[in-house]
Amino acid sequence: MGSTGEGLGRRDLIKRSAALGLISVPTMSALSACASGGGGTTKGPDKAPVTKENPFGVARGGKLEVVVFKGGFGDDYAKAWEAAFDKKWGTTTDHLGTQEITGKLQTRFNGGNPPDVVDDAGAQKIKLDVLFKAGQLADLTAVLEAPSLDDPGKKVRDTLIAGTVEQGTQGGKFVALNYIYTVFGFWYSGKLFKEKGWAEPKTWDEFLAVCTKAKEAGIGGLAHQGKYPYYINVVIMDLIAKKGGLEAMKAIDNLEPNAFEGNAAALAAVEAVYEVVEKGLLMPGTNGLTHTESQTAWNQYKAAFVPSGSWLENEQLKQTPEDFDMKFLPVPVLADSKLPFTAIRAGAGEPFIVPEKAANKAAGLEFIRSMLSREWSTLFAQQANSLTVVKDGVDPGVKLRPGTQSAVAALKAAGNDTFNYLYPDWYSEMDTEIQDASNELMAQRIQPKEWIKRAQAAVDKAAKDPNAKNNKRS
To answer: How far apart are alpha carbons 19 and 2 in whole angstroms?
Structure first.
């Protein structure tokens, strides 16, 4: 996700769109096991001389191993990348596309023989903060300082959308390239709204009114991905940021003692979401559904809204009717919000890493550099219907789908009013605990004030992390 919080520097937004991989909600026990060290590394190829064209000393003819999360974007884009890489460097790439990142890689990280490049995303991702604390992530700063493949007169860092580096930083080191540019909010069917005569809501009261009309028409107001409370958490946290402004968001990232308790914006946000539950405006059964189940029901016109990031369109390609006319909606605002309706959460996601003990680390670093070329960025857009953190990184001829076009238009309307939370990457346990509270809230097992209490407890617990002193935003 990569906003500084004050807004993103972007040129020609109409050329851009974005998406993010799925969410991370695995248990801490599994992930702690992933991060333990031990074992010897597999001997890699001899390095070639370092030159301006070969800044990491990639040896020709070596082997490269790439593991990619095969979720909403599939993995055809990675296969296209690998073919281009092998052709240029004479390498032989071993590719794995999987949704079981932890299951496939846990023992390999433990044994000291991880792959060379990993797309660490999905519900079974390995938590970045856990890997970082265990010394398992290579420092990617050298990639930022290397010449851009498109313009050797520029450093790679100068070709990235603002905030990308911040989003991939742990404890002061740049260790993850969050590659896909994403916006977050609600989504709806333009066709359904036109048929029903519903207007796009801009305030929370208007949002509730549309949900009520949907219920009267025998349609759920809001479908959410009940088994993955990450999604409804997006709504709650966006309401907090829009109601309380950037300072409210930064207070949470900076683990302040009043981040939630004593924060009127936070309580108002939670109460607003809870009102949807109390008034019976949820799509029936949505609390027990997975992300794809809820989203598919929404595609079948069983609900007016669903929350998600802009990977949604590509993820639902097969389930979306041809005339559905997918539309993006910024989270509507509460009364007296400091940020406008057009403000949206936007930034980089889908973290790619090079393990510290990779057998062919030089090739791994060069692979990351190649991802940040226009050629590879365009390959991604063509294969995954989404764009990247590379400025103007896609050839103008690439056609965008309706939902993506809508997201691009929303970004253009937002201007500098973009924001993004960093705590999910910095403090994964805190993120999970807040998600758990949201799950209880949506099931009416706790009330808003109890949610606030649990969220603050998660913040206070994270504040005891020794690494917290290195994770501060101004």
So the answer is: 13
- For the beta carbon of residue 42, count every other beta carbon within 10 angstroms: 15
pTM of the model: 0.75
Cα-to-chain-centroid distance, residue 273: 22
Residue among 349, 387, 357, 371 nearest 144 (CA):
371
Per the CB < 8 A criterion, the answer to whether 286 and 443 are in contact is no
Q: How many residues does the chain have?
A: 474
φ, ψ for residue 236, nearest 5 deg? -60, -50
Q: Hey, how many other C-beta atoms are within 10 angstroms of the C-beta on 147?
A: 15
Q: Is 150 exposed, middle or buried (0-12, 13-18, 19+ CB in 10 A)?
A: middle
**In degrees rounded to 5, what are phi and psi of residue 131?**
-65, -40
Instruction: List CB contacts of 443: < 8 A, sequence separation 6 or more.
Output: 287
Residue 314: the pLDDT is 86
pLDDT band at 158 (very low <50, low <70, confident <90, very high): very high
Identify the burial level of 382 via C-beta atoms within 10 angstroms of its C-beta, where 0-12 means exposed, 13-18 middle and 19 or more buried.
Answer: middle
User: Other CB atoms closer than 10 Å to residue 53's CB: what's the count?
Assistant: 8
Statement: residue 370 has pLDDT above 90: yes
Q: Which CA distances in Å does 347 have to 48, 69, 309?
A: 36, 19, 10
Backbone angles phi, psi at 418, to 5 degrees: -120, 155
- CB of 461 within 8 A of CB of 447? no
Distance, CA of 30 to CA of 303 (rounded, Å)? 35
Q: How far apart are CA 430 and CA 464, in angstroms?
A: 11
- Output the pLDDT for position 381: 83
Predicted confidence at residue 385, as pLDDT, reads: 77
d(CA 242, CA 344): 9
- Please give the torsion angle defined by the CA atoms of residues 184, 188, 191 and 193, in that order, rounded to the nearest 10 degrees: -130
* Residue pLDDT, tens place only, 23-46: 333 333 333 444 444 444 445 667
Percent of the chain with pLDDT over 90: 75
Cα dihedral 348, 18, 407, 16 sign: positive
